[in-house]
Design a protein that fits this description.
Elements (H helix, E strand, L loop, with lengths): L2 H11 L8 H16 L8 E7 L6 E3 L4 E4 L20 E4 L4 E5 L14 E5 L4 E4 L8 E8 L18 H14 L2 H26 L5
Parallel strand pairs: 5-6
Antiparallel strand pairs: 1-8, 2-7, 3-8, 4-5, 4-8, 6-7
Amino acid sequence: MTGQEILDIFHIYTDDTSELSSVEELLLLNRIYKKVCRNRPWEFLKTEKTGTLSASVPYVALPTDFLQFSENNQSTENTTGANSAIADRVVFVGTARTPYKIVNFADRNQYVNKDGYAYADLANSRLVFTLQPASALSYAYDYIKIPTDLTTATSPVFPICNEMIAFGMATDSYIIQIFDKARSYAPENNAKYEECMADLAFYNSNLRND
């Protein structure tokens, strides 16, 4: 479903009473789209970042679409239980894929000059290693990406329940415009939004082998 098709559904559920301009409608569409994508660490937003470490500075740039790290160091087998001693978010370094534990930014001073650790410096968009790498080894980690804005010709990253964006728009635009008729329809549109969210969450759960 394209952005235009989502807007068409939005117009149907607002009875063409929206006073938003086409630019404002697209801005609202993307606000709801990003809201859905921030709801949880969706499988369809997970991606891998690879690169080469620097031998001169202890950091590399984070991806421009970086939102947060994703778990990447657990076993899928049902016989393997959770082990608190194993970090579930790591950076794999070198051809041996040695796991470097990702620590909290607030805890970084506890790991100064210690090998095997890294943290995200979001203010400077950097992945920082607590010990300067001795050589330019390869690295890889998984993260949740921020999707690019939708246009009238592009489609959401999730393949189902695209219409939920229109329902979310209908509820949100009514808050902005406060039409009397809109007040009566807002609960129904919000209920449809939540129903679609539940369907999308079920779809997402079936992408995992937990």
